[in-house]
Amino acid sequence: MLTVLSTAPLANCRRVFLRNFELQANIGVHDHEKAGAQRIVVNIDLFVPLADTTPRHDKIDEVLDYDFIHATIRERIAIGHINLQETLCDDLARVLLAHPLVRAVRVSTEKPDVYPDCDAVGVEVFHLKS
What we know:
Elements lengths: L12 E13 L5 H4 L3 E12 H4 L13 H13 L5 H13 L6 E8 L9 E8 L2
Antiparallel strand pairs: 1-2, 2-3, 3-4
Helix pairs in contact: 3-4
């Protein structure tokens, strides 16, 4: 994934990430998935310009606070049932990319308990501001 930083629009960026955030979500199209929450895992990468996020005084207001990422995920899950992982990824990407410091975003979601013979099934999106 770091090779993405060598592309021109992201060459002067840092990557801020949230890894393997596990939570319960009401997600799925099948009847048994609509009956209650299931475990999902979310991963986020935000690409922010170094010029705007390099701290000079070691203060949180000089960078993109990753509490924003965590809260965005929790707020979307709290809205209610989501049929598709694609919808969840797109919703999260849209909100995260709207932040003025974010130049690009990668969002992935996984359902680790769908099949007993694999680690997870999931979806990933990448969006770059124009």
